[in-house]
Amino acid sequence: MTRLAAASLALVVAGCQVGAGEGWVRGSAFLPECGYGEGGEAAGAGETLDVPLRFFFGDVHGDGIDIRLQSSGAAVDVTDGLTFAIRNRHDVVAEIRANGAATVPVVAEEPPVPLAGPDLVARATMYLNASCHDSFVDFSHGLGTLVLTSMYAREADGDHANIDRITATFTGLSFRDERPETAVDGQHPWATVDGAFDFDYTRGRPAQPFP
Predict the structure, then answer these.
(1) Distance between CA 77 and CA 133 in Å, rounded?
(2) How far, CA to CA in Å, does 148 sit from each of 28, 33, 129, 169?
(3) Could you tell me the pLDDT band of residue 144, with boundaries at 50, 70 and 90?
(4) What DSSP character marks residue 105?
(5) 132-159 b/e with 16+ CB inside 10 Å = b?
(6) How far is residue 120's CA from residue 8's CA, in Å, rounded to a whole number?
(7) pLDDT at 87 exceeding the cut of 90
(8) pTM attached to this predicted model
(9) DSSP secondary structure string for all residues of 25-83
């Protein structure tokens, strides 16, 4: 193998490592158009939902960080995934340092920034654009709790240490599409999931398709 070929192979291997990590998302969902649950006499009954996670991505912007967990590195409109938008990662880092974990409420609508004390709040969105590509469901207002035990940090940003690892769990994270036109026999689409993720922050985004 020539040096150029070896170098090219090394770049390909390195590129495949972007977004590497471990995690899972499992629960139940009521999405009859996609085969999850039924209408009629069993209206509202959910079925098992399992989102295999193969791509992990963090995007720091100002004080916040967006965390994306996906079934692949493809564009959002052709994959399944879950995102968390954490408003102040510095306060999360400080809370973990002080107490070993940071419990962050996941809210449907962001509250005002507190005048005092830590700013611990996140938003969550789930999308099923691979397994449910023929139907648009709005799961953009998650409710629940995210418990983080490690968060990306940088001394240059005022944090106490340089940390790459992002680790968290969540239980009973719920989503519901309240739009009137989505109801089936009076029941709106919903999903409730548990999960966990553990990955090193890597600069990079899900793939952008090109013609």
Answers:
(1) 8
(2) 23, 34, 27, 7
(3) very high
(4) E
(5) beeeebebebbebebebebbbbbeeeeb
(6) 43
(7) yes
(8) 0.84
(9) EEEEEEBGGGTBS--GGGTT--EEEEE---EEEEEEETTEEEEEEESSSS-GGGSEEEE
